[in-house]
Amino acid sequence: MILIPRRLAYILHKNPMYITAAVESFYLRDPVSLRPLQTLDGSSLWFPPEDMVVVSVTFTKVGYAQLKSQEFTAPKLWKAQPEVASRRKRQSQVDLGMKVTCGFEMLLSDPQNVDKKSTREINLLLQDLKSGEDSLPTDSEISKWDKIEDDDSWLDVDFEEFEKELAGKRNKDMAHDKIG
After folding, report:
1. Is residue 93 a contact partner of residue 54, using CB atoms and an 8 Å limit?
2. CA of 175: how far to CAs of 6, 165, 171, in Å?
3. Percentage of the chain surpassing pLDDT 70?
4. Which 3 state secondary structure label does DSSP give 23?
């Protein structure tokens, strides 16, 4: 479960696979891709941190680990939002949501991504919203979406146990090679 702007929740509900491109943009960010996030005026952003909702998002394990492990200071606009500040007790929802949202901002703002299929499709969905062909989901509609919150304890690696596993596998392989 993450806290993201309703517009972004709409995009991810339309096609959950867009998360992969956003995680990649976030993970491979550079100073140029961070520029759009430095604004204090949300009107220049695709997904300003307002009208926030909590939704369930499906990540690949690698993508989730990449987002979770990255140190990233929240943009000033995010720090200033009351909806974000009031959620400090669920810091994980806020942090992951902020990283996902920033990843989407970087994906859509970076000229290098303009020809990517996901970027083109997201832009079409945003145009549908702007033209009135589609509308943002209501709180009632969002409450009917699947809400899955997985355990992320798999990220906690016991290195001693890991070493034992490697040694055990290695000893099994050596025994198998001697028999065969």
Report:
1. yes
2. 57, 15, 6
3. 83
4. helix
